[in-house]
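Continuing the series of single-chain predictions for the mutant panel. This is the parent chain; the variants come on the following pages.
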Amino acid sequence: MAQFTINFTVKIKDQYNRTEDITPDEVRQFEKYKNWTDEEISGLIETIKAYTRFIYNVCSKRQKDGKQIALPIETEKLKAA
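Parent structure:
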């Protein structure tokens, strides 16, 4: 199994509004990945997708479960944690 390092930024118009997966040809634009096989690139893409789903789920759960904690400040206000 190949070991992957995720260390690149895709420079495309509206990259944050993208609805389709990055393609192997787009990955090969980067020097580090130009000689990778389609299988290796597919593995990299799946790894990135799994990682982003995990982070999204963790952040969504934290926001949904937002707990309040008392902070020792002068105004004695409650802040979301």
